[in-house]
Design a protein that fits this description.
The structure is a single chain. This protein is 36% helix and 21% strand. By secondary structure, the chain is of the alpha/beta class. The longest helix is centred in the first third of the chain and has 24 residues.
Length: 486
């Protein structure tokens, strides 16, 4: 008996030693900052003015059946043409479905796969009930000592203007890329990008079999993004979740509420929804989440680092902890959100039917069909019909991080934001870059702007803003991106 206890004790000590060694030697392998040549001189106050004026044009995308204001969108395109004369005169460009723009900057070597820089200039509406909470008019483009404010400042006119400012500066310095560079500026991303980015991608994919890399909005440099880490974290999206909404519908026998059946249509539907909420999708560590944890772990307290450094041993414990927060739980599973429920017309009338809409954000590795099958099995009631609504978006493929391109991208970010930790991560929403799936395994989703964690709620929210010095850094980022990622 003592011998068995001794063996167990030795085993425990060995396990503890392995865990301790893994924790001590764990290295997130942050690459060094890239060495960059000074940026050619440009007029920073003029660039801020250009950005401000762009924010003053209310290029709002409304959900159908409402349509865009074509006069406003035409005004924006004209404004860009007048503001960036070198770009519009030296690069080949075209309109796509009237209001999206595609520029081609021909490289010196046509045999090389091209680069695609993406952004969009449409914005979401401003809720009229929130106007009193805005510090300034949402479309004022107000510039203060520290910020520039307005709808679209973060999503996504900052990238549109930063890209064009950078290209304009490069053209004035007579730079010519080795690879062809495409600049794709969409006009309807906020309602799906079907008429803008999707058509641009279709056109480019027909012309080119492969792309060197694609970069679009997604992550940012966020201070306070990870609990326990003081430096800002530059989040580079290497994949994005899918999206599907299912309709759950059931029928029942109507009648007077004085003689109800054991379960009305509403009650039956409610029971099915309860089963669905009580049995969420299985949680798992996907490559983007593993990559994120690996990158940030060395900067976390030892109490957290020990679990990440020993994920194969302590993964279940870490998973349980992460599932306690909706924010981190969304990194680990396909999420379930009951968003709409309807049934009944009067308090004393038993309804003949009830319906609910449930929205799911799909983890990479799963599909919308998988979601529908899981829901049908979990609801476990043949009287509840489960149907997929139009507009489903499958999760994107996971982009590679083991390439010189990704390493160089990280080094460039660290050159522009020296204090930042760079990390891959999973984008929770959808971006226009999904239309390039299959044309490259190097789609990266990153906006080169600095945010505090509290600023994340300003995206699509109240008092949307970006730091003026961060806008300048975004220009610098794109200026060097075109040169170093050749």
């Amino acid at each position: 008996m003592k011998k068995i206890a001794g063996i167990i004790g030795i085993g425990i000590l060995a396990l503890v030693a392995i865990i301790a060694w893994n924790t001590v030697t764990f290295n997130g392998q942050q690459p060094p900052a890239a060495s960059l040549k000074p940026m050619a001189a440009f007029d920073e106050p003029a660039a801020l003015t250009h950005f401000s004026k762009a924010l003053q044009i209310p290029t709002i995308s409304y959900e159908p059946p409402l349509t865009i204001d074509s006069t406003v969108f035409e005004h924006f395109v004209t404004y860009l043409e007048q503001t960036y004369p070198e770009t519009f005169s030296q690069l080949q460009w075209q309109r796509v479905n009237r209001f999206s723009l595609l520029f081609q900057w021909k490289g010196s070597d046509p045999q090389l796969a091209p680069i695609v820089l993406m952004a969009h200039y449409d914005v979401v509406p401003v809720d009229s009930s929130s106007l009193t909470q805005w510090e300034f008019d949402p479309f004022s483009g107000k510039i203060t000592d520290e910020y520039i404010l307005g709808r679209g400042a973060l999503d996504d006119k900052v990238n549109v203007i930063a890209i064009l400012e950078a290209v304009e500066a490069l053209l004035r310095s007579h730079f010519r890329p080795q690879r062809t560079v495409y600049i794709a500026i969409g006009h309807d991303e906020e309602i799906g990008g079907n008429h803008g980015a999707r058509q641009i991608a279709r056109q480019l994919i027909q012309k080119h079999s492969r792309f060197h890399f694609v970069i679009d909005e997604g992550g940012a440099v966020v201070q306070g993004a990870v609990r326990g880490i003081d430096p800002p974290v530059a989040l580079i999206g290497i994949a994005e979740k899918g999206y599907v909404t299912l309709e759950l519908r059931t029928t029942g026998t109507g009648g007077h509420s004085s003689m109800p059946p054991a379960h009305t249509a509403i009650g039956r539907l409610a029971a099915g929804i309860t089963r669905l909420e009580n049995h969420p999708f299985p949680a798992r560590f996907t490559p983007p989440t593993r990559g994120f944890l690996t990158a940030v772990a060395p900067y976390m307290p030892v109490s957290a680092r020990v679990f990440i450094a020993n994920l194969s041993l302590l993964g279940p414990v870490l998973k349980k902890a992460l599932l306690k927060s909706p924010t981190t739980a969304a990194m680990l599973r396909t999420t379930t959100a009951v968003t709409v429920i309807r049934g009944g017309v009067k308090d004393n009338v038993i309804p003949t039917g009830a319906r609910a809409l449930v929205n799911f954000r799909i983890l990479p590795g799963e599909t919308s069909d998988d979601v529908q099958k899981y829901v049908e099995q979990t609801v476990a009631d043949t009287a509840i019909r489960v149907e997929k609504l139009n507009g489903a978006i499958e999760p994107s493929p996971v982009s590679r991080t083991d390439t010189p391109i990704f390493t160089t991208l990280r080094r460039l970010i660290r050159a522009v934001y020296p204090e930042a930790i760079t990390a891959p991560y999973l984008v929770m929403g959808a971006t226009d870059s999904r239309y390039y799936a299959g044309a490259t395994d190097r789609v990266y989703r990153f906006s080169p702007v600095f945010l505090q964690k509290a600023d994340l709620s300003r995206i699509h929210g109240i008092n949307e803003r970006v730091r003026t010095d961060s806008f300048t850094q975004a220009i610098r980022f794109y200026y060097h991106l075109v040169q170093v990622l050749q």
